[in-house]
Design goal:
Shape of chain A: globular
Shape of chain B: rod-shaped
Strand content of chain A: under 5%
Radius of gyration of chain B: 44 Å
Oligomer: heterodimer
Distance between the termini of chain B: 115 Å
Largest sheet of chain A: none
Largest interface: A-B, 57 and 42 residues
Number of strands of chain B: 0
Number of helices of chain A: 10
Radius of gyration of chain A: 19 Å
């Protein structure tokens, strides 16, 4: 994000989009979109769509469910753009909405008594099939194991882990999004990390840091 | 969340800090495994929605209408409610007095007439003993004849007098002023149109000696009333007098107040006579000289007689008492005075 391109080297809307992508932070982009700049939204959406979608898929364990929530999250951001306040970090704002939408959608689904158990099983399989074809068998096994372990985590721990991994939020920001204290978030993360580490090949020498 | 991770995989602080910094095998493994992305169709739908949201809204009439009502619904509702409430209050204030006259009087007057049979019983019990009632009937009849000439001013004066429970200083009180204006605005009621008055007048004319019997028509008066006829003044007044005699002064006062709206002159005369009679009797009893009493009575009861200055009408009781004191029964002067009384009060019964 530190790269700056000279506008003269680029041209037209593309140059403008690149400039914004490089220089403007999320809050500024959101404010530009609020003022009617569609390109700002494109940039903002491009930045967060992947992480948000992954968060929702992993958190809900249901691709279709995640797509519905994903669309609802962005719809809310679009609808409420005029009331957006720049005093909060956009990522915190985004994941706060995502969490609320997920809860709402989950309640709606429970009311409809939809059986989501079949779809739950479909996600890990789909992830396994989406893997890199050139990856080694060991890497593929690790991926599957991580996803399986993630699905087996308690919801709170999985949520904390996913927020950390996907959104890049700090402990304090995760605490804000989830509505708990910082130490609670920390505890959940430690617990989640400990469980997930069991899926990984143990290092040859004990006490060596991961990676 | 106080539970500690298993010892086998327990993280030390350095490892956890490394994880928080993004340097963790778990993080790497997770990122490698993370491949799901939103479908292109979903991407397009969201972008389209975002773009559509930026387009200027076409505000149709319904949008404007809803926005207008959303903004103004509360103040408009408040104003409408206040306006309706005010209108209802004003309407009630306007209708109530008229209702008293036009509608509420009907059952009340009927109640006066219902009481009438009781007074009839009193009247029929002993004609010789109920001379006061006879005198009332006479006074009522004479006054009724002049009632048709009643002017609005006298009506207003009567209304003021009848509602005169207020102190003098309260003459400008809104209620009193309103009562007076209502009384002044009342249309003149022609007694000739009164069914019972006509009947009573015919009976009295045909048989003056038994004029008191006319009051028995009170029973029939109820039927006439139910048929829509106005209460006859004499019947009404007879009922009121009977109620006063039977210690029902409160009801009698109310009935008299109502009657004053229809027969202001009659009621005015009735009250003047009552006041004058009482005052004159006191004077006569107190005075040693009947001559002086008769002359002095109008003076001492000046207030009571104030309205008679334009149309003097001596009280027959006082007149008769004075005659009895002044002249011998068989004297010419006494006969002449009695003749005068009978000209004015043809149905007066001598005590």
């Amino acid at each position: 994000m530190g790269v700056k391109a000279h506008p003269a080297l680029l041209s037209g809307a593309f140059a403008y989009a690149v400039m914004m992508a490089v220089e403007l932070n999320d809050t500024a982009l959101m404010l530009r979109y609020k003022d009617g700049d569609m390109t700002a939204f494109e940039t903002l959406y491009g930045r967060h769509k992947g992480a948000l979608f992954r968060f929702l898929v992993r958190q809900t364990g249901n691709q279709q469910f995640a797509e519905d929530v994903f669309q609802e999250v962005w719809s809310r951001i679009i609808r409420n753009r005029d009331s957006y306040q720049a005093d909060a970090k956009f990522t915190t704002y985004l994941y706060h909405i995502a969490r609320n939408c997920s809860v709402d959608q989950h309640r709606r689904m429970q009311k409809r008594d939809n059986d989501i158990s079949e779809n739950e099983a479909a996600v890990p399989e789909a992830q396994a099939q989406d893997g890199n074809p050139v990856a080694t068998a060991e890497t593929a096994d690790i991926r599957i194991a991580i996803v399986d372990a993630l699905n087996q985590l308690p919801n709170d721990q999985r949520e904390a882990f996913l927020l950390k991994e996907e959104s890049g939020l700090s402990l304090e920001e995760i605490a804000t999004v989830t509505g708990v204290g910082r130490e609670t978030v920390k505890s959940r993360l430690r617990y989640a990390l400990s469980k997930l580490r069991q899926c990984l090949p143990q290092p040859e020498t004990a006490g060596v840091e991961d990676d | 969340m106080t539970e500690k991770p298993d010892n086998e995989t327990e993280l030390n602080d350095e490892q956890f800090e490394a994880y928080l910094d993004g340097n963790s095998a778990v993080s790497h493994a997770y990122r490698e495994a993370n491949t799901p992305a939103p479908p292109p169709a979903l991407d397009r739908a969201i972008r389209k929605e975002a773009e559509a949201a930026l387009l200027p809204k076409r505000r149709n009439f319904m949008d404007w209408d809803m926005e207008f009502w959303r903004q103004w619904a509360r103040p408009v509702s408040t104003v409408v409610i206040m306006g309706v409430s005010l209108a209802v209050v004003l309407q009630v204030m306007d209708i109530r007095p008229e209702k008293n006259i036009a509608m509420m009087d009907a059952p009340d007057a009927s109640s006066a007439l219902i009481k009438a049979p009781r007074s009839e019983a009193l009247l029929q019990r002993a004609p010789a003993e109920s001379t006061a009632d006879k005198r009332l009937a006479e006074g009522a009849m004479v006054a009724a004849q002049s009632a048709a000439k009643a002017e609005p001013a006298s009506r207003a004066r009567m209304a003021s007098k009848l509602s005169g429970t207020l102190p003098d200083g309260a003459a400008d009180a809104p209620a009193l002023a309103r009562e007076q204006s209502i009384a002044a605005d009342l249309p003149a009621i022609s007694e000739s149109e009164t069914a019972m008055y006509s009947i009573a007048a015919d009976r009295i004319s045909a048989d003056p000696e038994n004029a008191i019997e006319t009051l028995r028509l009170a029973d029939n008066a109820m039927e006439e009333w139910n048929a829509g006829a106005q209460a006859s003044a004499d019947i009404w007044l007879a009922g009121i007098a009977a109620m006063e005699d039977s210690d029902q002064a409160g009801i009698a006062h109310n009935e008299l107040t109502k009657m004053a709206r229809h027969y202001p002159k009659i009621v005015e005369r009735y009250q003047q006579q009552k006041e004058f009679s009482a005052a004159a009797r006191l004077d006569i009893n107190a005075a040693a000289d009947a001559d002086l009493t008769l002359e002095r009575s109008p003076v001492t009861t000046q207030a009571a007689m104030a309205d008679q200055t334009t149309n003097p009408l001596p009280n027959p009781d006082v007149w008769a008492a004075g005659i009895a004191r002044l002249y011998a029964d068989d004297s010419e002067q006494a006969a002449a005075e009695r003749a005068k009384i009978l000209r004015i009060y043809p149905y007066y019964v001598w005590q």
